[in-house]
Write a structure and sequence with these properties.
The protein has 2 helices and no strands. It has 52 residues and is an all-alpha fold. The protein has one domain.
C-alpha cells in the first residue's frame, strides 16, 4: 500500500500510531484533534485519487 501512495507521509502516520498505542500517559489531545480535523481529509483525498 505504501508504494501505491508515494505522496502519503507514512512515517508520520506510523509515528502518530505509536504515540497513541503505547501507554506512556502523555497524549496531546489537541494535536490528535487537529490531525483528524485537518490532515485526515487531505489523506483521504490522496488515497481516493489513486484508487480511481
Amino acid at each position: 500500500m505504501t508504494t501505491a501512495h508515494p505522496g502519503v507521509s507514512w512515517q508520520k502516520i506510523g509515528s502518530m500510531r505509536n504515540v497513541l498505542a503505547h501507554p506512556h500517559g502523555l497524549v496531546a489531545y489537541e494535536i490528535v484533534y487537529e490531525t483528524v480535523a485537518d490532515e485526515l481529509p487531505v489523506l483521504l483525498k490522496k488515497l481516493e485519487k489513486r484508487r480511481v
